[in-house]
Amino acid sequence: KKAAAKQVGLNVAERAKAQGIDTVPMLVMQVQKCSKLYTAEYRVHKIVTHDDALRLKGSLLKKQFDIKVPMADRKIAIPIDAKLKAYIDFSDFSEENIERDGRKITIVLPDPQVTMTSSKVDQKNVKEYVSLMRAHFSDAELSSFQQQGREAIIADIPKMGIIETAQANAAKVLVPMLTELGYDEADITITFRKHYEPND
């Protein structure tokens, strides 16, 4: 009797899967449980350089001059290590993100987000050259260079491919969820709202 009841239960589940009954609410609930799904992590190493030459500018006998002062250079190279993480926030995921056409299902995922979770200066490998005629770089200048380095890393995010990696990895997480609900992998499409350009 138990075996027969179990078989009946399986048949009901299979029919529900075949007809797509209640799979969407179940899918929404499972995806929302992911909350923030971190799908990619990049470690970035960047060297910020600054060359500060002292120059004399002015005019003499109505002629302009711009002369580099010899032995008055300052140079610095600051290595910065940063960690970037890409994630998809599923907190607002709903049935509006799901399109179903018979057995075919399309999931339109929320926009991926990228955040810099940490950054630090490799103090041991900071290289500085200051000629005898110049003062060393101030703490304020060093702090400004470090901030410029972080901003440069953020500006380079579109060129790194982290968004594409985040999208591909999100699909790898969601496709098994859908196959468990009875969808064939060939009928599943995971997509995003748009193609992201560098300005995004």
Strand count, sense and closure of the main sheet? 4 strands, antiparallel
Number of DSSP E strands: 7
Number of helices: 5
Helix fraction bin: 25-40%
Description of the molecule:
- The protein has 200 residues and is α+β, with helices and mostly antiparallel strands.
- The model is unreliable at 1-13 (pLDDT under 50).
- The termini are far apart.
- It is built from 5 helices and 7 strands.
Short structural summary:
This protein has 200 residues and is an alpha+beta fold. It contains five helices and seven strands, in the order H-H-E-E-E-E-E-E-H-H-H-E. Strands 1, 2, 5 and 6 form a four-stranded antiparallel β-sheet that branches. The protein has a three-stranded mixed β-sheet with strand order 3-4-7, with helices on one face.
Task: Describe the protein's topology.
Elements: H1 2-19, H2 23-32, E1 36-60, E2 63-89, E3 98-101, E4 104-109, E5 112-121, E6 127-130, H3 139-155, H4 157-160, H5 162-180, E7 188-192
Parallel strand pairs: 4-7
Antiparallel strand pairs: 1-2, 2-5, 2-6, 3-4
Keywords:
200 residues; alpha+beta; four-stranded antiparallel sheet; elongated
